[in-house]
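Key result, reporting period 2: structure in, sequence out.
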């Protein structure tokens, strides 16, 4: 079975969650040309490899999906960005095109099951409506489902995944673009480990992601957001997440249209004065 991986010596090692051929693989190659892709089974492993001191297991950076335009945020990744000593360097938006992939020689009438990640299956409802005899089967990963088909030589099944997955595992594409909504994009972050170093802000950085928690008092959120409004800093996203171990308390995640400038620095200093805690997750060029 063909297995295409960028592996030039000296190229940066980039961790992704999922198998080779996943959409994260494609995003990583676009964000870090010539990268050596390190697939990880779980998101936790991605962040562990960023923070490890082992030369064998460590990676230079990681590429993680943070938000899909249809399915919403990847909540686990927000939690990991907050809890780990990491920094977002860059964002990238990838158009998600779902393809129906099968083994060599398999035809559409042969197919009785289609494997893929639950989100991908949900984004292809029209395909299953038009083919009611085909059963959608949830699998842990889009590219992993293609790998499963080819390794097991399943002749009555297919998978939904990227074109890259078909290339990696030598699958054949039976149908392309079977997603219901063509405005399907996933936003990815390029993340570095900080260790004892200062965050690396790339040239042209004009967007900032932060997290903060508030006391449960009247007007707390209004006061927190006003530090940006008073300085004409625009917000592009705000989302709350529960604080683990502290029921009914929340962390707010906010994206700001600003980079490292005096207005932003003053706003963040002001925010620190009125919040229980705040953290800059990254300063990076907007996609």
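The corresponding designed sequence is given below.
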């Amino acid at each position: 079975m063909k297995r295409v991986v960028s592996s030039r010596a000296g190229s940066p090692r980039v961790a992704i969650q999922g198998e080779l051929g996943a959409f994260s693989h494609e995003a990583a190659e676009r964000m870090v040309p010539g990268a050596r892709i390190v697939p990880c089974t779980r998101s936790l492993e991605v962040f562990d490899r960023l923070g490890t001191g082992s030369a064998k297991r460590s990676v230079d950076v990681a590429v993680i999906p943070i938000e899909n335009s249809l399915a919403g945020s990847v909540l686990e990744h927000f939690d990991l960005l907050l809890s780990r000593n990491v920094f977002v360097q860059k964002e990238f938006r990838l158009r998600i095109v779902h393809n129906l992939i099968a083994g060599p020689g398999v035809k559409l009438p042969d197919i009785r099951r289609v494997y893929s990640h639950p989100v991908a299956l949900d984004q292809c409802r029209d395909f299953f409506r038009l083919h009611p005899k085909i059963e959608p089967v949830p699998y842990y990963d889009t590219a992993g489902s293609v790998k499963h088909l080819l390794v097991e030589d399943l002749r009555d099944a297919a998978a939904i995944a990227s074109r890259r997955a078909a290339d990696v595992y030598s699958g054949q594409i039976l149908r392309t673009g079977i997603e219901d909504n063509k405005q399907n994009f996933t936003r990815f972050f390029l993340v570095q480990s900080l260790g004892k170093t200062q965050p690396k802000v790339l040239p042209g950085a004009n967007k900032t992601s932060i997290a903060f928690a508030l006391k449960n008092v009247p007007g707390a959120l209004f006061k927190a957001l006003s530090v940006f409004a008073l300085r004409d800093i625009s917000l592009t996203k705000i989302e709350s997440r529960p604080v683990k171990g502290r029921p009914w308390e929340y962390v707010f995640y906010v994206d700001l249209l600003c980079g490292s400038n005096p207005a932003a620095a003053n706003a963040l200093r002001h925010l620190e004065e009125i919040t229980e805690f705040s953290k800059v997750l990254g300063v990076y060029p907007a996609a």
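The first helix runs from residue 23 to 31. The chain has a mean pLDDT of 92. This case is discussed further under Risks and Mitigation.
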